[in-house]
Amino acid sequence: MATDTTTIRSVEWKDDHILLLDQQKLPHVTEFIKLRTIEDVWESIHSLKVRGAPAIGITAAFGLALWAQSFKEKENFLGFYYELEEKKSYLEGSRPTAVNLAWALARLFNRFSQAATVVEGQALLLEEALTIAKEDEEVCRSIGEHGAELFQSGDSVLTHCNAGGIATARYGTALAPFYILKEKGVDLKVFATETRPVLQGARLTVWELMQAGIDVTLITDNMAAHTIAEKKIAAIIVGADRIAANGDTANKIGTRGLAILAKAFNIPFYVASPLSTIDLAIETGKEIPIEERNTEEVSHLNGIEVAAKGVKVFNPAFDVTPNEYITAIITEKGIIRGNYKKQLTLLK
Ligand code: MRU
User: Fold this and answer.
1) Catalytic site residue 136?
2) Which of 345, 342, 340, 315 is nearest to 325 (CA)?
3) Which CATH architecture has domain 5-140?
4) Is 144 in the pocket of ligand 1 (CB under 6 A)?
């Protein structure tokens, strides 16, 4: 029996605004906010109201299209072009690690090159942004279908951060196989790490999976090794923010540690990722920019200071898992293993 488990949309185009699910307020408050300016869009990405690589890309694309709609000087094509370039760089600066942001904006810019007038440009930018959102849903479903082949009914699988429906147009990447299997009546047991410091696992993954009726158990990050051993975890699956040409993968801080644990326990470590997250311009993970965020994310919990006052804090939002720890990368075009450099180049 088919169950529609993934109907909440985290980002939608609404003609004169973008409707965004405020992921900072989840899970206790489900609030949609209206973004009306490009500054609203920048702030929402920067402050994690929208997060997850594909969702950031879609929101940025809608943001550029939204700015374009507000451009009034219909005869000033050159002025429109220069300002568009500026706004593109502005949005690119909202978060550095997820390549989907720059990828989506580059797609809009390419499409814009077919325009000869401001009005044509406005229409093409919006059309491309809507296409990116539509394609992402299909891509994620396809990742889910490929990924579903890797699991058996009753398997316990560990995931980190939130690479679910709300991090994409729909279905997610790492969570997509769980949704596809649920539709087919195959039940897995999911273990979700809370994902310090901003708790995407505890707040978002658990919320999403519970709504879909998927069996999920929350653990703190430091319970991973014990849980793998005691709960007979069959595999670990995560998403990605940027994958270098050699397969090295940037994802939420803590991912690298989990990959090392997977190797130690001899269980597979899977990365689920759309091809849009693969950055062939970067040879290895050493070149991936790693975002460092506000120290209060670490020293405070829910606005309350928990660490000793004045302590030095290091707060990288992502880490890079070297390719040798990755059993397979699940993409919309299939599952790849082994020589990532060759296979990623062939697929892209
Ligand atoms: O800081 P976030 O919440 O944007 O980090 C998100 C992740 O690390 C996800 O795993 C990744 O973007 C993939 S989302 C499909």
Assistant:
1) no
2) 340
3) Up-down Bundle (1.20)
4) no
